[in-house]
Amino acid sequence: MASALVAQSRSPVGRRLVGALALAAVLVLLLMVPHAGLYYVRLADDVLIYTLLGFGLNLVIGYAGLLDLGFVAFYAVGAYTYALLASPQFGIHLPFLVILPIGAALAACFGILLGIPVLPLRGDYLAIVTLGFGEIIRILLNNMDAVTGGPQGVMMIDAPRLADYALISPRSFYWLLLGLCAVIGVLVLRLENSILGKAWAAIREDQDAARGIGIDTVRVKLAAFAISASIGGLAGVIFASFQRYVSPESFTFNESILIVLIIVIGGVGNILGVITGAVALIVLPELLRGVAQYRMMAFGFTLAALIILRPQGLVPRSFGPVRLLRWLLAS
Amino acid sequence: MSFAFDHVSKRFGSVVAIDDVSMTFEPGLIYAIIGPNGAGKSTLVNMAAGSYPVSSGSILLNGRKLERLKKHQISRAGVARTYQNIRLFDQMTVLENLEVALAPAEMRHAWREVLVPIYAGQATARRRATCLRLLEEFGLADVAGVHAELLPYGRQRMLEIARALVAEPSVLLLDEPAAGLNSAETDALKLRLRRLRRPNRVMVVIEHDMDLVMSLSDRIFVLHHGALLFHGTPAEVQANREVQEAYLGTDDDLESIRELARHRRAERGLRDQAGAVRHQA
Q1: Interface residue A183 vs chain B (CB under 8 A)
Q2: Contact criterion met (CB below 8 Å) for A266 and A314
Q3: What residues of chain B lie within 8 A of the CB of A193, using their CB?
Q4: Is the model's pLDDT at B281 over the cut of 50?
Q5: Is the ipTM of this complex over 0.90?
């Protein structure tokens, strides 16, 4: 609808006005969400957490061009880090803000751990090994009863506190997630435009030629895995602190696939695409509740149709946030 | 600055592709490596650039043994190359294709670039200026923002050479730079390559276009069946009978090729006639 409006207003001033109004509308919408019903706030929380996960995985898939099907493992590492360091499981109760970096760092270590063996692999082979890695982590969590509580998981996890303020309600998590998404989104965008982002793009395009111009592909790829995993870890910490309960069931292969789909449907290699994809894939199943038992079937058909009609994703790679702002505001 | 192949051999299984080749290159000169197809020219370049491991011998750059380095380290040591079939980063813009060649030198500061916006602005501006200057030199400034895959073939060649120059290499290896270019483009290439000569740079060109080789290079190495057959100035190479035989075959070979050509022409003539007859019928 916005595009139709823009097309109608021929004069530059009018066009700029429409653009500014559209931006303002999005901002107002973001501010209004917490005042909506609890159902909508929870939905928004879901969208934001998957946006965060999408930002992370997009580094590896979208920028470096490496198909990772085991991303949920890093999400799990972050979640269990919080679960074990802030629950009666071991009687440890570290503050949320201390665990947040620990979870991210630990996930980054796992990212490198996964990265090293898969360095020589590409395409299908890489996808299979990362898929296996995701499953290994989940099965470990399922079977290390003494540490992780096995299939029952970890219960009675502490509510996170920021200074004197306890984060319990979905509303407070909405603000936390929104803030984190904004910060990580900006960082990811800056990474994309940095020299490291250019090196990732070169690896994606032609790994051998990238080596030929002196790029240390080993280190550059490991950097992608580590940074991507740390974002997954952050999302995991927040997830655990929000649910206050974790079990291996939350970290199945389906989750990995959902995050990959968010990126592919939304638009590979573009954070606007990730946001669009997260909104589409989290909200769509809710909208389809009307068709009850055919819901998942309709969801599947919609995804298939989207992929066929727009193989490059809803938002093309070249249409990044900067282009969007320019398109909305410039004459 | 010194660059040399020291008794280099390359075996692929039982096939000897390069057989005990030694070459010394002097800075400031343009070298050509010529030889019939399969003589091992590209193999030499691929070994020097680290794409193939060396079977025996050494490739020395300022006393460093390049065969012990990884591919990216060889590039960092100052060896740049272009490919026989152009290899650009297709989905990146022309400017980005050059900028990314600065990545190895600037990767240490990547974190600062991400976290400090002012520094990022400066670094980007600096990179852009360096690369735009090079693009102007190569007549590519007008397409700086265009995806590399959209350029015509001749300009892609230029872009690839420009990319190899970003890091200011001391050894520049050009694998058939004139392949696929028309004669006007080849002339332009010749002028451009001449201007890339530096007192502290070795330029090595592998090329089939003999006009280009003879007019561009200062010294020529002739490879034949993986061994060094001859080396000298263009005039010396042209005067050498052994080289002519290796390249064109002996007079007997030449005669049999001519015979074959006559035969083919006659065959084609018959086919054409047959076609014409069918048409009438």
Answers
A1: no
A2: yes
A3: 120, 124
A4: no
A5: no
